[in-house]
Design a protein that fits this description.
7-stranded mixed β-sheet; Aminopeptidase; 28% helix; globular; alpha+beta
Amino acid sequence: MKEIELIPYDLESSVESLELLEIIEKYYSKSPYLPDQKKIQSGEVVYYRAFLSGSQVGITGYSKKTPTLAETIKTTIFDDFRGKGLGTSLSQAIEDECKKLGIKKILSTVYFFNHAMIHIKMKQGYTIEGYHPDHEAPGFHEYSLGKFLT
């Protein structure tokens, strides 16, 4: 597996938070509810740049739900780097980051049409814990996947 380095975004920086917002808008354009810059800067989610060999290949993040439960957020591999196994590496990197923080269970909500990430999560030991029809909007379904970290 390729070693991805996670570098936290400085969300107090309007430049970095705006850069992140532009990435989210590009890769989550199908979502009817995108965060705005104020929401990104709220600190509810810790966002990371994902680097491989000095190149930024994607983004990821997590939101702590309880002291031992976190949900991964906006895990994305940039278009130029897709199809190279980096989704698996990035998914593992954010899982490892959460584990370092003492998280015991990790959740991930994946859009129903994102078959690649559903497959990756299932291979990594996640189980489907729920299906949410019309979750964000009519016809916009999601799966909830979870995994206990050991």
